[in-house]
Amino acid sequence: MTAAIAPSFARDFPDDPDLALLVRAFQEGDFAHVRAEAPKLAARSTDAKVKDAAALLVARTEADPLAKGLLALTLALLVGLTAFWLANSGPHSGEDAAKPPPPVIERITDTPAVPNAPPAQPAPATPSPQPAGS
What we know:
elongated; mainly alpha
């Protein structure tokens, strides 16, 4: 492996032409090729270091375990919240769904808001201002 083209984790890989092709595919982002060919290389190789390097390349193409856990937690939260919504205030079915909501009736009364309060007195009229010249 030449250190100029290899990723930092692959600098100590053994010199093997097939492994070099896999490292180059990894570097170019062709992870499907790496996942398909690395197990084949590990099966046909007799060198344990080449097998370990191929396994490491495949492991580097896997999703991060923390990301997998957060995704699973997010999906569980989504399912839980959806179940809670459906159980408590979700879309109603049956007779309740067919009935329109009852109309809101506003009642206005002439009685004062406070019981036994005297009726409100009209405000006294204020005199209008006189013109200056009269």
